[in-house]
Amino acid sequence: MQKTEILSITNMTLTELEALCVSMGEPAYRAEQMLSWIYEKRATSFDQMSNLSKDFRRRCAEKYHVFQTRVDSITETADGTEKFLIHLFDENVIESVLLREGKRITVCISTQVGCAMGCRFCASGLLGLQRNLTTGEIVEQVLHVRNHLPTDERLTNIVFMGIGEPLMNYDNVVKAIRILNAAWGLGIGIRNITISTVGIIDGIRRLAQEGLQVNLAISLHASDDVTRTKIVPSNTKTGIRNVIAAAQEYFKVTHRDISFEYVLIDGVNTSKRDAETLALLLKGIQCNINILPVNPVEEFNWKTPSEETIDMFCNTLERHGLIVTRRKKKGDDIHAACGQLRLQRHKNNLHQENNASREPSPDRA
Ligand code: SF4
């Protein structure tokens, strides 16, 4: 049976919800009351909205949901990383990750079910793209994580670095950012929101014109086209120099610093020459480079480089005047690399299905 999408309040902006309230014979200010229940008071059902009439709550519940997703499981690692597997209306699952670094509490969220980009170090691309997430499905990931935090802890940052390429789901992502940033929404500062992209050039240009000052992180992972195409196949359509030029344009319009992400894969993009070429490529660009050792994924044969190699790579970049942030692999023991938990769930399901199909049927027994 085809599952139909659930209409949830988390898909709506204040203006849209005001129009809905008026169309249901209620004053427009009911919309702000409802949003305050969801974004401030952590309500997850209309029943909790005690300043709305029972009749209005009943009529809302007949047609709409507050949330259209639910948390399937939460897994925690020794370093405090928590991975949320989120169940969608069509039985798909996505991942969101809660990361703690001092006072900084970040949620990393997904934007698509699967991904078409097929980066060769990422579990998300292995199952291909199923569909884009709705605005509500994006917003709810942040709400599930925030609602899980004790009330004295504040979610400080949002990064669009989970499953999917955010700029391939442009409209829903931008609408979700406006809701998460709005004073009537979650009120997360726009400068604390980061979009990570493999370098969708049209999307970067469009984003620069939105009047939003979100941070942009570009997944570079190589310093020449041959190596980058091996790691990020979509590079064949863009080319590394065009991606960097689009990032520079973004900086010119928004004045937001650019981050370049670089996953170190032993023997593939880790030589001194790679570091020097990268330094030349980024010379004069106001940016910082995030260096991260690759998270091994069973399906790919990549290896994590040694500490000495990572040191050499970072030191070479720094000697050329670049700002380098060395990131640690977080949450390895719960498959925290992008898409790994979802992939593991998919494999488990296949395993169960195979076992079930191997069991003798009652009439053969
Ligand atoms: S790294 Fe990002 S863009 Fe690349 S396949 Fe994974 S989810 Fe998609």
In short:
With 365 residues, the protein is α/β, with parallel strands linked by helices. The chain contains twelve helices and twelve strands.
Strand content: 15-25%
**How many DSSP E strands?**
12
Rg over CA atoms, rounded to whole Å, is: 22 Å
What is the string of SSEs from the N terminus onward? Answer: HHHEEEEEEHEHEHEHHHEHEHEH
- Overall geometric form: elongated
> What structural class results from the helix and strand content?
alpha/beta
End-to-end Cα distance: 30 Å
Give me the oligomer status.
single chain
Which small compounds were modeled alongside the protein?
iron/sulfur cluster
Architecture of the largest domain in CATH?
Alpha-Beta Barrel
Number of helices: 12
Low-pLDDT regions: 331-337, 359-365
CATH topology of the largest domain: TIM Barrel
Summarize model confidence as the mean pLDDT: 89
Supply the CATH class of the largest domain.
Alpha Beta
* Total tally of structural domains: 2
Fraction in helix? 25-40%
Main sheet: strands, sense, barrel: 10 strands, mixed
CATH homologous superfamily caption of the largest domain: Aldolase class I
Task: Give the helices and strands, then pairings.
Blueprint: H1 14-23, H2 30-39, H3 54-63, E1 70-76, E2 82-87, E3 93-101, E4 104-108, E5 112-114, E6 129-132, H4 135-148, E7 157-160, H5 170-181, E8 193-197, H6 201-208, E9 215-219, H7 225-231, H8 235-238, H9 240-254, E10 258-264, H10 272-281, E11 287-293, H11 307-319, E12 323-326, H12 340-358
Parallel strand pairs: 4-7, 7-8, 8-9, 9-10, 10-11, 11-12
Antiparallel strand pairs: 1-2, 2-3, 3-4, 5-6
Helix pairs in contact: 1-2, 4-5, 6-9, 10-11
Bound molecules: iron/sulfur cluster.
Iron/sulfur cluster binds at residues 115, 117-119, 122, 124-125, 163-165, 198, 338.
